[in-house]
């Protein structure tokens, strides 16, 4: 039963949930979703946001999906380019072993 005091939408089935995300209804009636587990450092650095908001459930679901896609793409790119994570910045590589007078 909904008495208006809860800030969490009442789950009634899969159509009102986003797997892996917690839904929150603000006092102003805005929907928010917060990912239950943080994104990886790679995904966060790529811009994946753990908490998103929207005017309606479908828009909220689309935004959460967009964040998951962004995170997945960042993880896949990092897996394809392991040398990029370990290589020094281009300027650093040129200066190694260089004598400056």
Automatic annotation (TrEMBL):
Domain of life according to the entry: Bacteria
Disordered as annotated region, ranges: 1-20, 66-101
Low complexity biased stretches: 7-20
Protein name: DUF2188 domain-containing protein
